[in-house]
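Hey, resending since the last one bounced:
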Amino acid sequence: MRSINRWQSAASPWHPLSRAAAATVSGAQAVNLRSQRAQHEGRASVCVLLGSDHAELVREARDSANKSLVIASHRFAGAANNLIVAPMFAASKRARDLDVRLFYGEDSGAITATDIARLTSEAAKSGVRIRPVHRPRLHAKFLTWDDDVAVIISQNWLSADTTDDNPRQQIGICIRSPGVGRILLERFEAATVAAGGG
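The structure tokens again:
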């Protein structure tokens, strides 16, 4: 992963997430990472994600999440099982009290509603909740685990993989800052509740 910025939030008036969190739910909003004053003190880091960095972050979340692990993606396809669902099953098995959730906007056409229903049922038995979000229209692609990590990307986690052959085909950022993952998840949940959820 390519670190592009490090700063002391106590010394800087800017918080790294809030507009980005809003943009993940609205889709059409411009992302401005310097739009709100900091609410937490401590170090923060931002890394650009290219190519296989995306899969590396999924593996890190699988192996280190202790409290929660949440992924949102626009499209659901058959590729999701190996790319995302299997790592989420593994995380849930490793930490039995882990809150593991997966949200998606629509199927890709490469997987049937019956397949998704079967997978959702299997996931529930393993402690993984899979849920569609139709309102607001979900175009967000993010990963967050525990409280202090938020990953926002262009890749559809549940329908596409990235390789290092064309590393700039998909791009993302990983933000590590006190409370950043919790804030992203709270904003997402508030938006879905306000719009009627699924």
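Residues 67 and 98 are 5 Å apart (CA to CA).

Sorry for the duplicate.
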